[in-house]
Specification:
alpha/beta
């Protein structure tokens, strides 16, 4: 059984008559049923609905119509993005039976483009985690090594793409939750500029940091997805009213005189040696293509984690206050004589997992009287300094290059304390803090001792320069074949 083809291939084959949307849909469902029992990528698969949609699209194609740029393309959706189909649970018992009465803006745009939504993917509860282990219904496993994590929090979407169960997927990125799992699973993951993609219908974690973005097998497919989901949305007050570039045009034209900055803080001895080796090789690839490589200094890199883990939990504690079991979310069985406060407490304790509770408590603490200035206000001040540091760096170079994560995928159930887990995102959180765009590409492999594991190459560009970011990423893909590798645990 073959993998589901990529976005461009599916679209071209459907519109040329070499295949049908119905055939693509059936193949995708069959592949999901074959591999997902061992991987756990999906919470829910929309078998009946996706076949009905595919047949309707085929009728339009037969009538000579063009249903859209993603006609017949199977797309998986992270389960913190609202869909009228199925449930939107955020992998939490708090929302285990929640059915959204509306589609998120990105979902509506995918449907309008002719995409086939195949199902909802697993994630860390309320997108809080770096391993997709913090889930109410069990972890997702990495297609390259099922004893290892796929990264998080969008691990289900990354693993679904890497395993070939869909052409692309959507995830959300608050501190690296698209790019880090893309690195661990060996696919492309793009975090757009804050405001580039509407957050309407994305269940909020950290509202000033969250951004929806695509997973794909290659840069071209990521560009196709980004074109569809981008654009101003009056339903999102943070949506930017900027022109949506045709990202997939000129993608194969190399950037002349490309200036690449390599932050010295990111090529650290604390990285896995295999990670540093692959990034050095990527630098050589760009140098051979005529790029100028310079070192840049980002001294606030290590302050990003502590800044993020003040701002993000503070926003999360506010956003998740609505889930009290009365107005919203899981409600426990009330006991005789129990007060309303007791009911709130028990409902939230039963509905939220340990990691979510940990972040709510941390966020409530840093916002509390007497600590606001010492923690939250200071974190906002450091955030501004981080933004200014990136602005200066982008004055010196066009693109920043480094590893996506300091390590490859670690084992499921590894004895990692929360701080160790948080440090997986040390190179990605500042992209969200600053608000600019970043992408993770497959840079090759490192030997784990039990097999090869993917290594992610992280490229970053200034705000709303996704066209530059994607062209620079495509340059690397054109000179390597890493993105063509298929994990043994996929059906390909």
């Amino acid at each position: 059984m073959n993998q589901v083809p990529g976005c461009r291939q599916v679209r071209d084959e459907v519109m040329s008559g070499r295949t049908t949307c119905a055939h693509v849909a059936k193949n995708a469902i069959d592949i999901i049923r074959t591999v997902d029992e061992s991987l756990g990528c999906y919470h829910e698969v929309f078998d009946t609905e996706v076949l009905e949609t595919a047949e309707a699209l085929d009728r339009q194609v037969a009538d000579g119509k063009d249903p859209g740029p993603l006609c017949g393309v199977p797309i998986a959706i992270k389960d913190n993005i609202a869909t009228r189909s199925g449930r939107t649970t955020c992998s939490s018992r708090m929302l285990q039976e929640y059915r959204s009465p509306y589609d998120a803006t990105v979902i509506r745009r995918l449907k309008d483009a002719g995409a086939l939504l195949v199902g909802k993917t697993n994630c860390d509860e309320f997108a809080m985690g770096s391993s997709t282990e913090h889930c109410a219904w069990g972890p997702t496993r990495n297609p390259w090594d099922t004893d290892r994590v796929p990264g998080g929090s969008s691990g289900g979407s990354a693993a679904a793409v890497a395993a070939g169960t869909c052409s692309g997927a959507l995830g959300s990125d608050t501190g690296g939750s698209i790019r880090q799992p893309a690195s661990f699973c060996g696919c492309v993951g793009l975090k757009p500029t804050y405001g580039r993609v509407s957050r309407f219908g994305l269940v909020a974690f950290g509202s000033s940091l969250d951004q929806v973005g695509p997973f794909a097998r290659n840069t071209e497919d990521a560009a196709m997805l980004l074109e569809v989901i981008s654009g101003y949305d009056p339903n999102d007050s943070t949506s930017a009213d900027v022109v949506v570039d045709p990202f997939s045009e000129n993608l194969d034209r190399p950037i002349e005189n490309l200036r690449i900055g390599v932050p010295v803080q990111m090529m650290s001895d604390r990285n896995d040696p295999g990670v540093n080796a692959r990034i050095e090789e990527a630098i050589d690839v760009y140098r051979s293509m005529g790029a100028t490589i310079t070192s840049v200094d980002l001294p606030l890199t290590d302050y990003g984690i502590s800044t993020y883990y003040v701002i993000a939990p503070a926003e999360a504690s506010s956003n998740l206050a609505r889930y009290d079991g009365i107005r919203y979310g899981h409600r426990c069985t009330q006991q005789p004589g129990e007060t309303l406060e007791d009911l709130y407490s028990r409902s939230r304790s039963e509905g939220f997992g340990d990691e979510v509770q940990r972040r709510i408590m941390l966020g409530t603490y840093v916002l509390s009287s007497g600590y606001y200035d010492a923690y939250y206000k200071r974190a906002l001040q450091v955030r501004r300094l981080i933004k200014e540091e990136f602005d200066r760096a982008f004055n010196e170079c066009d693109i920043l290059l480094g590893p996506t994560s300091p390590m490859p995928a670690f084992g499921i159930g590894d004895d990692m304390d929360p701080l160790q887990m948080y440090l997986c995102d040390v190179y990605t959180v500042n992209t969200n803090i600053s608000g600019h765009c970043g992408i993770s590409l497959q840079a090759g492999f490192t030997d784990s001792g039990n097999g090869l594991l993917p290594v992610g190459l992280h490229l970053q560009a200034p705000p709303f320069q996704e066209h530059r970011l994607l062209r620079a990423a495509r340059m690397f893909e054109s000179a390597t074949a890493h993105h063509e590798a298929v994990p043994e645990n996929s059906p390909g």
